[in-house]
Amino acid sequence: MTTFLDNLLAGPDSERWLTAHNDPLAGIYTFSSCLALSDLGGDGDFRLVIADLGSGEFNMKLRVFKGTQQVTENTIIDLPTGVVTFHMDTNEPRIPAIAVASGSHIYIYKNLRPYFKFTLPTLDIQPAERDIWDQAARDTLNTSQIYENLSNLRNEIGDARLTARTQRLLMLDSLQEVEQFVETHKSFPLKRQTVVTCIDTLNKSYAEEGSVACLVLGTESSSVYILDPEAFTIMDSLALPSPPVFLTAAGLYDVEYRILVVCR
Fold this sequence. Notes:
A hairpin with a 3-residue loop joins strand 13 (244-252) and strand 14 (256-263). The strands form four sheets. The protein has a four-stranded antiparallel sheet with strand order 1-2-3-4, with no helix packed on it. Helix 2 (127-137) packs antiparallel against helix 3. The longest helix has 15 residues, at 143-157. It has five helices and 14 strands. By secondary structure, the chain is of the alpha+beta class. The protein has helices at residues 4-10, 127-137, 143-157, 164-169, 175-185; strands spanning 35-38, 47-52, 61-66, 69-75, 80-86, 97-102, 105-110, 113-119, 196-203, 213-219, 223-227, 234-239, 244-252, 256-263. The two termini are 27 Å apart.
């Protein structure tokens, strides 16, 4: 597969470019939204921050490179969907933090070490879905009835408004798998959690580079949240007609700002 870099190096201006480093065995699997360049040491030397998706199922890592050498590595529990760097306070030296969007969480790293984990708020569960699982816990419905009732509910309201437990159950192929799944999960509390789809930053009060900035999150539940940069509480939220895929923020939160969103 031809990459953008291949095309650039083969183009009419190829003599302007030098290959500073090339490692075909690096084994890094990532997207542009999971890359960032930032002065993480406060010394004017920018580091490359990469959220590596690993195999797509395991071995997800947050990697930081100085030049061509990896200087630190942290394990990420779920698949990352975005990485940004931002200043969360005015302390000296002015060293930015790293925010990694992964699953239902935002992992904050300060001084290249885990610092804080923000979890998205849980969503309301459909009363009909809760009632079906309550009946399953009381053994008043058999496996076929549970599957049929949940399938009918999905046809009425769609997948997006169901819990992850119900979505996984409806993906199973055989009645035996459904029965095992129900027996394993029916006694646990039902929760509906969304995931982060995109992330950006928005300066809070000042436009200068290195000013304190808020995190702006887009979620699979078609919401956008703006987080306080120090307490990591939700300062503002808005609803969208469909899940956001990309977003960019401009302006100042305390003065005037705009958020541009691309939705599915």
